[in-house]
Amino acid sequence: MVNRNPIYVEIPIRAEMDDLWKASQSPGRHEQWDLRFSSITYQPKNHDDEPQEFTYKTNIGLGLSVEGWGRSKGTHDGKDGSRTSSLHFGTDQKISIITEGRGYWKYIPKSDKEMTFLTQYDYQTRFATPGAWIDKLFFRPMIGWATALSFDVLKRWLEQGIAPKSQYMQFFAYWILSFFFSFVWIYHGLIPKVLYRHAEEIALAESLLPFSVSADSVVVWMGIAEILFGLTWWFIKRRRWLYYLQVFAFPVLTVSAIVADPSTLTHPFSPLTFNSGLFLLSVLGLAVSRDVPSAKNCKRKRKESA
């Protein structure tokens, strides 16, 4: 049997109880900030005291989606002013690794306008032992990360008034640009410089270096440096410094290439146009890299005493 831990996410939010409650319990608002759901639809109730049932849909790409059901089993008001909302959910679709699960949301007031918002939930999986391992190694970390990122987006929405859609556009633009620049630097360091030592790379180095210096060796070391810089995008936390460096570096590299060989201006992929595009993307990356939503702003482990 594969051991698993329930998913737990907690975040402080500067908001009143009613505002946080409406943002998380109203389907139209909930689906705006929760990355796990594309749409949520409440079903009509015959009596007010019945559990609230709903259906949900999650688009997973390539025209595929997972649809499921949910049931709000009730709300408990604590003596300390907290509220707890229990949930039962699941799906019959075979494409989903989840069969059904249970969890709760808890709203704990710390002051008049400060809350602790947390959730804990767990679920059963399909596909026997292979499904359990897929869940443990891939799906559970992913769904836990999506929950935490969604909580941070909700926090910024209530505290700063930034619409969830705008936050997700910023988030995905930031990471797409980061992966793109990592690829560009690694590719241009590895392929033309280290592996193939392209003639144009060596000729450019020879035009800038003294005769006593081996252009071939310099090109290889430049390639290694570019590969390391590309890998830095995966590990450094403050990527804004990398964008600042690129905003300075690309104009310098462009001028150096043109001075070394003015004929490059007539090439199909001129350093002027290519590096100008990278410069503008660096400026864009610098703009979107300020205060990006992050799952790391949430607590992911519950205190043992809780």
Tell me what you see in this structure.
The chain is built from eight helices and seven strands. The protein is α+β, with helices and mostly antiparallel strands. It has a seven-stranded antiparallel beta sheet. A hairpin with a 2-residue loop joins β3 and β4.
For the biggest β-sheet, the strand order reads 1-7-6-5-4-3-2
Radius of gyration: 26 Å
Q: Order of helices and strands, N to C?
A: EHHEEEEEEHHHHHH
Distance between the termini: 27 Å
The unreliable regions are none
Structural class of the helix and strand makeup? alpha+beta
Shape by Cα distribution:
elongated
Taking the sheet with the most strands, its summary is: 7 strands, antiparallel
Attribute tags:
306 residues; 8 helices; single chain; alpha+beta; elongated; seven-stranded antiparallel beta sheet; 7 strands
SSE topology:
Elements: E1 7-13, H1 17-25, H2 27-33, E2 39-42, E3 52-61, E4 64-77, E5 83-90, E6 98-111, E7 114-125, H3 128-160, H4 164-195, H5 199-208, H6 215-235, H7 240-260, H8 271-288
Antiparallel strand pairs: 1-7, 2-3, 3-4, 4-5, 5-6, 6-7
Summarize the structure.
With about 300 residues, the chain is α+β, with helices and mostly antiparallel strands. The protein has helices at about 15-25, 25-35, 130-160, 165-195, 200-210, 215-235, 240-260, 270-290; strands spanning about 5-15, 40, 50-60, 65-75, 85-90, 100-110, 115-125.
